[in-house]
Amino acid sequence: MAILHSLLRYGLPVLTAMFALTGTFVHAADPAIGPGDILKIEVYEEPELSMEVVVSASGDFSYPLLERVDAGGHSAHSLARSMEQLLRDKRFLRFPSVNVTLTKQRNSVVTLSGSIGKPGIYPLMPGTRLREFLADYGGIADENAGPAIVIQKSDGTALRIRHGDLYSEKPEIREKNNPILEPGDEIIIPKSDVFYVSGSVRSPSKYNIDREITVRDAIATAGGCTLESGNAIFWQRINSEGKRETIVFDKRQLAEQDPQLLQSVGPGDLIYVSMADSFFVGGYVQAPGEFHYEKDMTLSRAVAMAGDRQEFSSTRITIVRENPKGERTVERYDLKTIRNGKERDPLVQPGDIITVGGGFLAFSSKVRKLLPISLPWSFLNDY
């Protein structure tokens, strides 16, 4: 009996430690530990270290000597081996022998995240369906919610359900797309990326990107241009190099299926349709934006309406203008010489694009319509 007792007292922990050092062996059938699980921890001949613990939402739990133990992703078997290693490494026990039992898995818990009224981890009653569960915890509360609900299963698979199908007026569609939830499910309602359309369109607003959408489609989504719209269309975006820019188009390109307007809109993009009888002042001014055209409006007055030049900006001014033939021309002036009376103060025309301090690359007068022109990102910050 003494020999048997010695074997149990010293031999078994030594063997356990030896196997632990060779690596953790987790059977595929061993369930992974997750938030809400209740674990029974037993340490051989250490009753003060034997206890039941509840895994927190972050996947760990409080434990004497070790303070916080990370259980996320472990099975009961691998967690026991990990705890033995920690107790041994920290010199609390020479030959620790730990047994972990998963007494109640996830307590029939479902996780809610994303665009939901009350994100969190909640108990699941048997037989509860998706729509009823969402209603109990605030429903889909974010107007930026994407078009689909994702149910991530504990086995790694996922189920996607459209909002419209879950709340369809047709009972058969509602029933088909209202599954019974299972313990460990994670319900994710992703936020949709949005773009903005403003200015002279029929329905200026922000819109969800639920598919690939072009600049032309985006304007159509906002109801198209109004009768009062001007010729200039501005697309504010971040380009493929990660740089901020604004691209300018001519409204007539919409009807011509111009390839430039068939580029895809990205998250946060702003498309602005100008008003007729207006002009634009951008670049290094205090208040860039669109301004109502008035008769006999001069260049210096237009710059003053935009708050005048910023400190340390250049006095160079560029006007991009469309001539009667539909061609884009570029005119350059110096504000200092204009204000000193050494150069005439030119009149502004409706549709003019005035840039202070930055300027545009010159375009040939033979260029028909508008080529995309990069503007400073600050050009339309107020829209």
Low-confidence stretches: 1-29, 359-383
Tell me the name of the CATH homologous superfamily of the largest domain: Outer membrane lipoprotein wza domain like
User: How many beta strands in the DSSP annotation?
Assistant: 21
Structural class: alpha+beta
Mean pLDDT figure: 78
Range of helix content: 10-25%
CATH topology (level 3) name of the largest domain: Outer membrane lipoprotein wza fold like
Question: Ends: how far apart?
Answer: 87 Å
**How much strand?**
25-35%
CATH architecture annotation name of the largest domain: Roll
Spell out the helices and strands N to C. Answer: HEEEEHEEEHEEHHEEEHEEEEEHEEHEE
Q: Quickly count the domains.
A: 4
Helical run tally: 8
- Biggest sheet strand order reads 12-11-15-13-14-21
How large is the radius of gyration? 33 Å
Class of the largest domain, according to the CATH hierarchy? Answer: Alpha Beta
Largest sheet: 6 strands, mixed
Shape: elongated
